[in-house]
Structures are given as C-alpha cells and as structure tokens.
Amino acid sequence: MTLHFQPPAPDHVPPERMVDFDFFAVPPGMADPTEIWHDLVRQGVPSIFYTPRNGGHWVLMDYADIVEAYRDHTVFSTYQTPVPPIEPFPVVQPQGVDPPEHNVFRRLLAPLFTPIAVRGMVDELQRRAAGLIDRFAARGQCDFIADFAARYPTGTFLHLFGLPEERLDEFLALASTFFRSTAPAERADNITQIYAVLDALFREKQASPGTDIASTIVLARDANGQPHDWTDILNCGFLLFVAGLDTVTNTLAYIWRYLATTPDARRYFRDRLDDPDAFLRGIEELMRINAVSSLFRRVTHDCEFRGVQLRRNDRVVLPNTIANRDQRVFENPQAIDLDRAVNVHVTFGVGPHRCIGSHLAKREVMVSMQEWLRRIPDFELDPAQPPGAAFGGSVMGFDSLWLRWPPR
Questions:
Q1: Where are the beta strands (DSSP E) in 233-342?
Q2: Domain of residue 258, CATH code
Q3: Residues 96, 242: Cα–Cα separation, whole Å
Q4: Which residue range forms the structural domain that includes residue 230?
C-alpha cells in the first residue's frame, strides 16, 4: 500500500534544529506535564525545531509563528495530520478539511454552538453538574477526574447527541484510548470502534429523528437539497466526539488543581458567583495558563518558512501552552492574573478552524465552578494522591486528581 501522507526522511533538517523531544513522555515525578514544553524554553531550543520522535515532526515555539500556522492553510493544512502518522485517517468534518470546503459542515454546526444556543443549554448543564457533585459533596473527598471531570463533558455529549446515559463508561473508554495510545494497531482499531458506534447512532436518528445534534446533522441537506455524503456525516460525528471530551476534562482538572492550592482564587470566584462578566474574565485567564492541547498541521508543499526549509507532508505541532506564555505578547505571562484585561490566548485556536465549541467549553467550566463552589467552597489537594498521575500527548492532563474538604 502506498502511504501518501507520511513525512519524508528528515535529511532536510540542519543539525542545529534537531532536538530529541517526545511530547508524550512525562518524566517520573513531574507533577505538571506542561513543564515538558516549558523546559524546552528554559533550555533555549530553536524557535522552530525538528524531533525524530513519533514519526518525526517540526515544533513551532513562537506565538506569532503558531498563529501564522493556524491561519495559513495554504502551507499548514489540517488534512491528514495525526502524530504519530496514521494512514488512512478519517477526514474529520470540518476540522480536517481546508477552506473553502470546510465551510459546508462549519456552517451546519456553527449555529448549534453560538453564545445564544449555549445559553439555552445552561439549565441542563447546571442539572448535570449539581447531580454529579451531590454524589460526593458530603463525603469530603473525591477523585476529581473519575468522579466529575471525565463524566461531566462526556455525559453532556451523550445528552446533546441523544444517546442514553448508560453508555457513558463505553464512551469514556473509547476516548481514553484515542487520546492516550501511540500503538498503531490499537489506534486503528479504536477509530474503527468509534465509527461503528457513530454509524449505528446516525442510522437510528435517520429512521427516528429527534431534536438532538445527531438528528440535525443527519437530516441536513446540501446546496442541491440532497443528503450529505454518509462518510462526511460520520466524519462530522467523529470530530464532535473527539473534540469536546478530553480537552474539557483536562482543562477542568488543571483549573481545579490550581483552585485547590490557591485560596485567593477560590475567594475571587466565590465573590463573583453572580457577576458572569467578571467570572468569565477569570475563566479566560485560566484557559490561557492551562492550555492542555497541542494541535497538528501538515505541510502542503516544499517551501521556506521563517528561513527554515519545510517539505511536503512534514508534520508540525503547535503547542498552545507555549504560545500562551510568550512574553512578547503577554505581560508577566507566567503569572495568573484573573483580571487580565487583554487576553489573546490561542487555547481554542485562531483562523478558519477556530474551535466551534469554544462557547460551550467555557460555559461547561463556568457552570461547573459555580455549582462546585456553592457546595464545596473550600478544598485542597489530598496528600494521598498517588505519584505518576500526569501524562503528555496531544492533550495533557492527569489520570487522577484527589481532592479533600471538610465533610458535611
């Protein structure tokens, strides 16, 4: 089989730009996986470097370069980008399609996640957050990941897609393998399983539609009034499955880890429970400092970028955590300023593929924090937290996060 989108051998990479770096590898004892990236800054690696790990790929380290790669799809494509490479890989809709073709499904999805549409979901989000927290609030202890952060966004996805709650653990397992595994066979099998679930779901909605997002997608028509291609429908479902689960889970984990160790921050948000504008400004700063994702691009043709020779099919990794702490863009970037007025972070990307679900993600964080602080106003990290809970990858985070507070 011919592999069309594999990166070439790195014989075009000068030795001074070669760095041995594996973004999946978190050293034992490192409590914060983002530190593997910030260690590179402290070491003074080139602002554009190449690593032979995970199939070989470039890394951009400057905010301006990362933003340029997000915006310029003529050089940095979103089509067939996974690191490590997998072929064939689903052409996720609309994220895995370059402009202008990506507009077909982006226009279909965008109205479902506008600020107004998301405000209409608040009652359900509050009900779900409160229900989960009430299960353990009186206990005085929880594993925040297992008991809340993993279940909340995944349960919300099931609800929005019209899937039964009983399938929550199944979807958690599928998402975990997708984001954590680097074994090609396991990754390929995992994608096959996800598509089988989506195929069954969309066929069920086609036969018996409801008011959920899956029904909206399967009932949509193209410019000629015809149903969309079935593969495109599945690819759209695949994007929504992988885009909104793990990133929200681990963003929540990072935020709660910070709140557990920072009484002033807990007080800041408690004092603003009824001030949504100030509350959201603080959340934007936590989104900046706790960017958990690194996104991928693929070079479309041989070219030069910032004086560096790139070859067709070279993979490029864009670490948001590095961009969001660029001192040329953010004043005192390592400090958390919950009243930061200008916050041009790239946690949700920029340009034509900026995250459609960003308003929902921020609302999920906001509602979670409001419902939590009303029930558990003060909490701390549990010293019984087992070591080795941190992991790297395209989405960084923690396997567990034990918290404790005075039981009721």
A1: 294-299, 303-305, 308-310, 315-319
A2: 1.10.630.10
A3: 13
A4: 46-404
